[in-house]
User: What shape does this take?
Amino acid sequence: MLKIISSFLLKISGWKIVDTTPNGVINYSKAVMIAAPHTSNWDYFYCMIIVLRVGLPFKYLAKDSLFKFPLGIIIRGLGGVPVIRSQKNNLVNDMGGMIKNSQESIQLIVPAEGTRSYSKEWKSGFYHIAVTAGVPIILGFLDFKKKEGGFLNVFYPTGNYEQDLFEIQKQYANVTPKFPEDNSLKNMKFD
Assistant: This one.
């Protein structure tokens, strides 16, 4: 039913799904997926209808304030995992362990910027979760200019965070967010 609803919503909104991963995103049984760029509340809507349409087994990280009643019921039902940003926690190890120990396929969606507002740099959690779990990073994207969303590529972390981050971000150079002025990559040079 969710596939039918998401197909309908994609059709009426004029958006299309793009998957340029080597094996097709559905064939990566365990992964961390970046949700980028993240500049708008609309990012959640389009991300959800895309992953539901593709049929991915997923969970996603979201700030804890979104989990209040009644919206929290829907967010948890769709795979939301609350993140309490105001306190220290062991989120990387907890999420890495959840993926590693899962008996079922799972892709954990993490907004790389951690916020819709302008952020000078990406949060490193997505990378460290992938390294902890021993899984690849799927480069999920939303391009509001082209009305396309989906999956750019799959990246296997080498353990060299700085170098890997540059290679990952470079693949987002031509992706246009809803609010380009809030894009954390707007001043990056990838030449």
In short: The beta strands are 16-19, 30-36, 58-63, 80-83, 106-111, 137-143, 148-155.
